[in-house]
Design goal:
The complex is a heterodimer of chains A (638) and B (734). With 638 residues, chain A is an alpha+beta fold. Chain A has 17 helices and 13 strands. In chain A, the strands form four sheets. Chain A has a five-stranded antiparallel sheet with strand order 4-3-11-12-13. A three-stranded mixed sheet of chain A has the order 9-2-10. In chain A, strand 11 and strand 12 form a beta hairpin. The radius of gyration of chain A is 28 Å and the shape is globular. In chain B, the strands form six sheets. Chain B has a seven-stranded mixed sheet with strand order 5-4-16-15-14-6-7, with helices on one face. In chain B, strands 21-25-22-24-23-26 form a six-stranded mixed beta barrel. A five-stranded parallel sheet of chain B has the order 10-9-8-12-13. The longest helix of chain B is centred in the first third of the chain and has 19 residues. Chain B is globular and about 70 Å long. The chains are: A alpha+beta (638), B alpha/beta (734). The interface between A and B is large, with 103 and 89 residues. Strand 1 of chain A pairs parallel with strand 1 of chain B.
Chain lengths: 638, 734
């Protein structure tokens, strides 16, 4: 296949650029260029070595997950279209164009020479801090009976592309051509959600450009029958590529797992492995993640387990905890949840005719309360929007409402914000015709937005690749925060306005207590379940009790104290108790939410010692090493 | 299946807009890969790719080659000559004329005042062969100092010395094609996948086809060691013991090739008498390899139809470096494994043109492996160059390492340093610093003005690098390949050849010695001087070399006239009986008594310091340290340390540690790994002010190459990690 590209029907193949060395070449010069010099044929030379050419003599019908390998059947409307690579209209003549392709990695052979990564970055013109493909390693045994196992991975162009489903802007497409999952940086607004959901760390968020980019399978090379740049560059005879489930010549296995490779059930990745050499039972990571891989003798598979790399001492690390890139998320989620809780209490309380609420809504404090809620939520929204890599593209957040929990969250939260604002706005015209009806309509819309937005705000964190979040405690913590902070918000405004009556204080105290109790119950179950999981979730919990051991204890103590104070308030109705209660509850909420974000450890490829090592990245940023452009680490953008 | 957007945007894939590809052999290691550099419409180098029909690399490149086009615009390039009266004063820009006049005047002044040899010239393995030849002609024929050497003394000197002692001449007899024919490969102190990735690929291709036995001798568990059939984690510096023991077994069990020995060698009796003392039991106590393994390795090697040995710095950089090479040659000779397909002793060379300097620079003698010690060689070259044969010294002068010791002792007063950086690369930096400080005059000629050695220079000459210049280089398998100017040197920087020719003008006012201006003409002149020599290149010219993507020497004018095309590869030396380079055509079998003069660990300094290279960096890191997509894999110095030792010292992963030797101290980050034993750390040598603050570098008695890989240190925990991080950073900022 593709042995003689010049004879391929319909195309006059030609290298894009004149090779001066061909003046002396033994092979005759190719025909004059007719294809676009910047087109899909620009990489093709008339003497491409065999190792760089695709070679799939036979293909299977279905993959191991039962999916057809053919992406679209003969005659499908998606067939025969040009990929319009850089605007070229040519259609590649690859006979396997509509079959799912994937990488093949022979772990027996990889020597970690980085040629694949370099070839990828050279072709895609990536700066040092961005890499579509990375090599990490795990190590086991004792000198000299030691074994280093290198893993080179890019995008696995999954059957179930969670990136595509998660992306709110619809920047992702899974193409019928080769089954390639491609991302369009020009659509992306840099929220980074795809980098959260991908179990393999394939999408790369560039803090400088403020957008994501990723492996494009070198579809331009595939179109002319060449393997991707990384595969063609491999020096260890480790990396290969072809129609999925095909075992390359001279190889004997096509497994879907090797030690250090994240679980495959989330996305059904299109990567296959060979790993025939006996492994050590314990394979360690050389990066800072407190994880190692332990062999289960029955299945022969490795599972991630905690590796307590830095002992069991409790530390503070407050600066790292509160100075994280995710601060915008802390501000957004807490403020929106507080406002949602308050809104729920006001609307539902009023409709149910709860006297304390009805009185409060009727008081002069009502309109300032709604304004305060709008202001607080506006603050959260601004923080979140500025957190985007490209804030001006915020409107694209709704684009993927069919699939993405983020889009649905944004839609719901926006509807809620509209309803909230409407409620406040029409309250200004109380007594005028239609004002009451419009207020009610706004409140109904607000409630609908609250339910949808609140649900998807939780749902979007239930990411299988982030076990620390993928637990019901996320829902408990978010709903609990809504009740607790919503109650606190209403009580503080009422207190300031002098309308925090004893019944209202008791009611709000009860609401806060319910929220805190819900969060506490979630946390207890979470800690128990994370420890029991033994994977990235357990590793995150290990960090929770060591690296952030003191803030964790402090938060738990504050939560307990707040729960006690809120119960006392509920029982006594003492308005002034809300002053200490608010301080403690807010501190507990901020600390808790910061822990939630900083602790999560995604399932991902193990790093190397410098490259893709979170510990070194943090060191480089703290020490100032990251100021050197050739270091491959850039500062976070806040 | 889920496809996402129905209406798709065009796919955007990075387009560097390459409009032309320019040919050049790679300027990093001596594998000798053919590269094409892509130029965009503005003529700017923006891409690199391997040349598909080059026999060496067959389209492949390693990560350094893949980003080699970024070299041209890397930080710190020199763009104009600089001068100053004293090295601690600020630089002043200068014209080429005034800088070159100053260099020539200072050479004359110092030679007149302190004698001709008081001015030293130290070059490199980085330049092009025509430049080496021109510098050699200038130095030997006009300037006349005998203290003229290159930094190849730091990497290949032991191989040169060993080849000369065994075979009568330098010149590696094998080639990469040997991998495709061998039945057994022993890699002595060679981490092929990291140091020579493309040669590794060729080896791996062959191994997957033929399944030959791979035996690796290395104290560290490299990827090659890990993937070998047999890994021998030897005690540092004891290779000669293992070789002697292997020969002991081979002779004892009658596995040697008596016919080959009789037809090709001298000295078998003395060798047998010496190795008789190294029975495997005795040897195992010294070299740390158990007796059974020694026997198995000896038998496997000797019984193989064709067996080859490769080696790199694990052998060369030791006090027994030259002996180690001779030992490898002994093993090859007694089993008849020289000059046959798959049977060879092949030194895997370091720098891109270390071979070119060995052949043509006149550092160790006169061009094309001629010796100063031979009157007929002096006569022949003097006549060819039109100089007085009596002007040549009758014995080789000092090597780089000895020159520096003499400089430290005040005997060398002036220095012209070309494309090398002893402040980073020589052992025991503290003493190198003192030696440089006291020079009356120092000229640094380099493509980087921020090279650390320039801090002691009075004149800085900005040179072109790699494919800013025109000429040829020779690789490990004796293949001469072309480098062509892809882009001009930046600013006023000039190719080294231009600089040498301008200096030559200042010593050659009467024009009696010819210095051709163009590399192509110089190459033809070299061809004339090579007729009938081992490295006969008289059949080659620049165009033919490029058309063939490199030609292995020898390729003679006679072959060319016969119409015999240069072979694609697979050319070997000493393929016929009795054709070795000694006058009688026989190789020497040399007995190797073992003297343990290493600095071995003791109570005060209990840890071996093993130094070496990383795949992502090139030597002193002046090049790769500035290319992010190379540098990021190891941007700061680190040590591989056994987790048990780290735990004992209370050192955590990623902490900075202090290493102390009898020479000084250094800081690096700790990487706990089981690749090294508990009594050894591995420290990459690339980083300035790091490894060589610690190394002793005892010199090999024959090759004068330093033993970088065997020093003793202790390791200390650092309490103030922040200060350590700052210090580590400040010591090497670009």
């Amino acid at each position: 296949m593709f042995k003689h590209p010049t004879s391929m029907p319909g195309y006059a193949f030609k290298r894009g650029a004149e090779s001066e060395s061909d003046q002396h070449s033994a092979t005759p010069a190719a025909a004059p260029a007719t294809a676009n010099a910047n087109g899909i044929f620009r990489y093709l030379r008339d003497n491409e070595p065999d190792y760089a050419r695709l070679h799939d003599p036979v293909t299977h019908e279905r993959n191991r997950y039962g999916q057809p390998i053919e992406t679209v059947p003969e005659g499908h409307e998606l067939r025969g279209q040009s990929l319009r690579i850089n605007g070229c209209s040519e259609v590649g003549a690859n006979p396997n164009r509509y079959k799912q392709h994937g990488f093949f990695f022979n772990a027996d052979n990889c020597i970690a020479c980085h040629a694949c990564e370099a070839a990828c970055s050279e072709k895609n013109d990536n700066p040092a801090h961005i890499a579509f493909r990375s090599v990490g390693f795990v190590e086991g045994g004792t000198y000299p009976n030691t074994q280093r196992l290198n893993i080179s991975m890019a995008c696995n162009h999954c059957d179930n592309p969670v990136c595509l489903k998660g992306c709110p802007t619809r920047a992702y497409t899974k193409f019928a051509e080769y089954g390639a999952v491609l991302q369009d940086p020009d659509i992306c607004f840099g929220c980074g959600y795809c980098t959260w959901v991908c179990p393999y760390n394939a999408p790369q968020l560039d803090p400088i450009k403020g957008q994501v980019s990723k492996c494009n399978m070198c579809v331009d090379r595939l179109e002319v029958g060449l393997k991707p740049a990384c595969v063609s560059a491999c020096l260890g005879k480790a990396l290969d590529f072809g129609v999925i489930e095909n075992i390359p010549e001279g190889r004997t296995q096509a497994r879907a797992e090797i030690p250090g490779f994240p679980r495959t059930d989330i996305t059904h990745p299109n990567i296959r492995f060979q790993q025939t050499r006996a492994t050590q039972r314990d394979m360690l990571r050389l990066d800072s993640a407190p994880l190692k891989y332990y062999r289960d003798d029955a299945s022969g598979r490795f599972k991630p387990v905690v590796d307590p790399k830095h002992g069991f001492a409790r530390q503070w690390n407050l600066k790292k905890l509160l100075g994280s890139h995710e601060n915008a998320h802390i501000a957004f989620t807490l403020s929106v949840q507080a406002v949602m809780g308050a809104f729920l209490a006001l609307t539902v309380g009023a409709w149910l005719g709860v006297a304390a609420i009805v009185d409060f809504v009727g008081s002069a404090a009502y309109i300032p309360t709604v304004l305060a809620m709008v202001a607080l939520m506006g603050f959260g929204l601004v923080k979140l929007n500025l957190h985007l890599g490209k804030p001006l593209r915020f409107y694209r957040g709704f684009n993927n409402w069919r699939l993405s929990p983020v889009s649905r969250e944004i839609a719901g939260v926006s509807l809620f914000f509209g309803g909230l604002s409407g409620t406040g706005f029409f309250a200004l015209f109380d007594g005028l015709p239609f004002a009451g009806a419009l207020q009610t309509a706004s409140a109904v819309a607000g409630l609908a937005g609250l339910v949808v937005g609140g649900y998807y705000m939780i749902k979007l964190y239930r990411i299988p690749a982030r076990p620390f979040w993928d637990h019901w405690h996320t829902g408990a913590a978010f709903s609990g925060a809504a009740l607790a902070l919503g109650g606190v918000l209403l009580a503080l405004v009422a207190l300031a306005a002098g309308v925090l009556t004893t019944p209202l204080a008791a009611l709000l105290g009860g609401m806060v207590a319910a929220g805190l109790a819900l969060e506490a119950a979630g946390l207890l179950a979470h800690a128990r379940d994370m420890k029991a999981r033994g994977d990235e979730g357990a590793a995150a919990h290990y960090e929770q009790t060591t690296t952030y051991g003191w803030p964790y204890l402090l938060r738990n103590g504050l939560l307990g104290a707040a729960l006690f104070a809120s119960l006392a308030t509920a029982a006594s109705g003492a308005a002034l108790l809300f002053v200490p209660l608010a301080a403690i509850a807010i501190a507990a909420a901020v600390l808790g939410r910061a822990l939630f974000y900083v602790l999560v450890i995604p399932t991902t490829l193990p790093g190397a010692f410098f490259w893709r090592n979170q510990g070194f990245v943090e060191h480089a940023r703290e020490s100032g090493l990251a100021a050197m452009p050739q270091l491959g680490v850039v500062m976070e953008r806040h | 299946m889920l496809f996402g957007r129905g209406k798709k945007n065009p796919i955007k894939i990075a387009d560097k807009g390459v409009v032309a590809w320019k040919y050049a052999a790679c300027g990093y290691c001596s594998t000798g890969c053919s590269i094409e550099v892509g130029l965009n419409a503005d003529g700017k180098p923006v891409a690199s790719r391997g040349v598909a029909d080059a026999d060496v690399n067959r389209g492949k490149l390693c990560l350094k080659g893949i980003f080699e086009h970024e070299l041209f615009e890397s930080a710190g390039r020199g763009t104009r000559p600089l001068m100053r009266e004293r090295w601690h004063e600020p630089w002043q820009p200068a014209s080429w004329d005034s800088a070159l006049d100053k260099l020539a005047d200072e050479i004359r002044r110092i030679q007149a005042k302190h004698g001709p040899d008081s001015f030293a010239i130290i070059s490199t393995g980085q330049m092009l062969t025509e430049e080496f030849y021109t510098l050699g002609k200038l130095t030997r024929g006009l300037i006349g100092t005998n203290n003229y050497d290159g930094n190849t003394t730091l990497c290949m000197s032991s191989a040169v010395s060993g080849y000369k002692r065994s075979f009568g001449s330098d010149g590696p007899p094998g080639c990469y094609d040997d991998f495709d024919h061998t039945d057994c490969l022993i890699a002595w102190g060679s981490n092929l996948p990291e140091q020579h990735p493309i040669i590794y690929w060729r080896m791996k291709e062959a191994q997957e086809k033929r399944g030959f036995t791979l035996i690796v001798v290395d104290p560290r568990v490299t990827m090659l060691a890990q993937n070998a059939h047999l890994h021998l984690p030897i005690t540092p510096g004891t290779d000669v013991v293992l070789m002697n023991a292997m020969m002991h077994v081979i002779f004892k069990e009658g596995l040697h090739d008596q016919r080959y020995i009789d037809a090709n060698t001298h000295g078998i009796d003395a060798l047998r008498a010496e190795v008789e003392k190294y029975d495997p039991v005795t040897a195992s106590k010294l070299c740390g390899i158990d007796e059974d393994t020694i026997r198995v390795v000896a038998r496997t090697f000797a019984k193989s139809g064709a067996a080859m040995q490769i080696w790199t710095m694990g052998i060369n950089q030791s006090t027994h470096g030259s002996d180690g090479v001779v030992g490898i040659n002994n093993l090859a000779l007694i089993t008849g494994n020289i000059g046959k397909p798959g049977g060879t002793s092949l030194s895997i060379t370091g720098q891109c043109n270390a071979m070119g300097t060995r052949e043509w620079s006149s550092c160790s003698g006169l061009p094309n492996y001629r010796y100063l010690e031979y009157a007929e060689h002096r006569e022949e070259v003097a006549k060819f160059w039109n100089v007085d044969p009596e002007f040549f010294p009758k014995k080789r002068g000092m090597l780089q390492t000895d020159i520096y010791q003499a400089m430290e002792a005040g005997q060398i007063k002036g220095l012209w340093l070309i494309a090398t950086n002893p402040m980073s690369s020589l052992p025991n930096t503290a003493r190198i610093r003192k030696a440089m400080e006291q020079l009356e005059f120092c000229c640094v000629q380099d493509c980087y003005e921020d090279t650390e050695s320039a801090q002691y220079a009075h004149v800085y000459l900005p040179a072109g690098t790699w494919a800013e210049k025109d000429g040829v280089m020779t690789n490990t398998e004796r293949r001469i390949n072309r480098v062509k100017p892809v882009t001009p040197p930046p600013g006023e920087a000039k190719p080294d050849l231009w600089i040498f020719n301008r200096v030559a003008e200042r010593f050659n006012r009467d024009g009696r010695v010819k210095f051709p201006e163009h590399a192509g003409d110089i190459f033809l002149e070299m061809g004339q001087l090579s007729v009938g020599r081992l490295a006969d290149i008289s059949g080659m010219d620049h165009a033919l070399i490029e058309a063939n993507r490199g030609i292995q020497w020898p390729y003679t004018a006679e072959q060319k006239e016969r119409g015999e095309a240069p072979p694609r590869g697979g050319k070997r030396l000493y393929t016929q009986d009795g054709t070795f380079s000694y006058p009688d055509g026989r190789a020497k079998l040399i007995p190797l008594p073992f003297i343990d003069n290493n600095e071995v660990p003791d109570d005060k300094f209990p840890v071996w310091l093993n130094t070496g290279r990383l795949i992502e960096h090139w030597h002193g890191r002046t090049k790769t340290g500035k290319i992010g997509n190379n540098n990021k894999y190891s941007p700061i110095p680190f040590i591989e340390i056994n987790p048990a030792l780290a735990a004992e010292l209370g050192i955590a992963r990623g902490e900075y540690v202090r290493m102390v030797s009898r020479r000084g101290d250094a800081i690096a980050m700790a990487q706990p790994t089981q690749r090294v034993p508990k009594n050894m750390v591995f420290l990459p040598f690339h980083f300035h002010d790091c490894a060589n603050r610690l190394t002793l570098g005892l010199l090999d008695p024959h090759s004068r190459q330093p033993a970088y890989k065997q020093s003793a240190i202790r390791i200390e925990k650092i309490a103030d990690q922040q200060a350590a991080a700052k210090l580590s950073m400040d010591m090497r900022t670009f």
